[in-house]
């Protein structure tokens, strides 16, 4: 906010002195008018707004009094030499805003005042009354980012297969009766493209990119046969096994596997079913049956963390451990612990 000229500051101070005299004489309307003139000449002085706020409160104009107090708080906010005046303006605004049922505004000013003086009795009392009446802040909505999947034009229909050895990946395109000069193959470090001029005169283009791993273009070849086109791609990293031909295919498989794993992990454990199956398989004795009934009872009456602990420990240990302590179970996988003199066997 720009500083007023010397003349304006002088005029403002003169109006302020006259306004104070009117205020102490009980002439509140006149005082309000003079304070307003002082502010018009110099709107950078917080004291003018606080004095007009007090005057307007005397006149019953609570809303404008609250506005003036807030303006005074704003003008003194960044000035450490005016901390006491800033605190007073915050408390005044908080009190008036609360009386006007502007609870959010009141709470904001009172919180700032509390930081300055947390032991101030009026601030503590007002804040305790106002806080429960404020508008609840909505929980932030966390949007899950959808994984971007590369979208590319569909390849023309043609059956193809691939296999590999330590040095090469061999791609076979089963396209019959292709003339020797009607097909071209281009290799890059991460891809291969095949262009075939069909008997109808149209060109069919087949792109395989990006490949699962890098290849050596100069050492890659192709051969046109009567029933197929065989493309031999030299591996840049000899001996490395390719799980898929293309990276896009690997991404799709990984995503599908992730969803399947998540779906499986969300399935609940039916202790009734587990107990029933165990009873059929081992022909439980009455005492052992009561133990399973106990497990069912614990799970039924347990809180969410206990149920999670029981489910996780039972599944991960392959039925050899059961824990109700989520703090311990959540730290890592629960190992299979078979009975003494036995061992766990994977199938």
Describe what this molecule looks like in 3D.
By secondary structure, this protein is α+β, with helices and mostly antiparallel strands. The chain has 3 domains: about 130 residues, Serine Threonine Protein Phosphatase 5, Tetratricopeptide repeat (Alpha Horseshoe); about 90 residues, Sandwich (Immunoglobulin-like); about 60 residues, no CATH class. The protein contains 12 helices and 7 strands. The strands form 2 sheets. A 4-stranded antiparallel sheet has the order 1-2-7-6, with no helix packed on it. Helix 3 packs antiparallel against helix 4, helix 5 runs antiparallel to helix 6 and helix 9 runs antiparallel to helix 10. The radius of gyration is 40 Å and the shape is elongated. About 5% of the residues have low confidence. Belongs to the SGT1 family. One of its GO terms (cellular component) is cytoplasm. InterPro entries: CS_dom, HSP20-like_chaperone, SGS_dom, Sgt1-like, TPR-like_helical_dom_sf, TPR_rpt. Pfam families: CS (PF04969), SGS (PF05002).
């Amino acid at each position: 906010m720009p500083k007023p000229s010397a003349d304006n500051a002088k005029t403002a101070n003169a109006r302020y002195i006259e306004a104070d005299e009117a205020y102490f004489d009980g002439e509140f309307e006149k005082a309000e008018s003079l304070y307003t003139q002082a502010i018009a000449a110099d709107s950078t002085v917080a004291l003018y707004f606080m004095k007009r706020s007090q005057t307007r409160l005397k006149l019953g104009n609570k809303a404008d009094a609250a506005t003036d107090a807030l303006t005074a708080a704003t003008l003194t906010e960044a000035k450490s030499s005016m901390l006491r005046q800033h605190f007073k303006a915050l408390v005044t605004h908080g009190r008036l805003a609360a009386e006007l049922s502007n609870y959010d505004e009141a709470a904001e000013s009172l919180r700032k005042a509390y930081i300055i003086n947390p032991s101030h009795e009026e601030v503590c009392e007002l804040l305790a009354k106002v806080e429960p009446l404020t508008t609840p802040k909505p929980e932030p909505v966390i949007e899950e980012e959808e994984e971007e999947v590369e979208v590319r034009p569909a390849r023309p229909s043609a059956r193809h297969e691939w296999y590999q050895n330590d040095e090469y990946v061999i791609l076979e395109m089963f396209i019959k009766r292709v003339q020797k000069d009607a097909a071209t193959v281009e290799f890059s470090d991460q891809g291969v493209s095949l262009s075939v001029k069909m008997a109808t005169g149209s060109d069919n283009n087949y792109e395989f990119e990006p490949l699962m791993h890098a290849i050596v273009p100069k050492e890659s070849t192709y051969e046109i046969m009567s029933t197929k086109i065989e493309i031999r791609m030299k591996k840049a990293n000899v001996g490395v096994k390719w799980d898929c031909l293309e990276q896009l295919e690997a991404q799709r498989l990984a995503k599908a596997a992730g969803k399947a794993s998540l779906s499986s992990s969300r399935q609940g454990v039916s202790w009734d079913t587990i107990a029933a199956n165990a009873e059929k398989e081992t022909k439980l004795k009455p005492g052992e049956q009561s133990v399973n009934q106990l497990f069912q009872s614990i799970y039924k009456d347990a809180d969410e963390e206990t149920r999670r602990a029981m489910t996780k420990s039972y599944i991960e240990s392959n039925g050899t451990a059961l824990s109700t302590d989520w703090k311990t179970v959540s730290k890592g996988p629960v190992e299979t612990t078979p009975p003494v003199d036995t061992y766990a066997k994977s199938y």
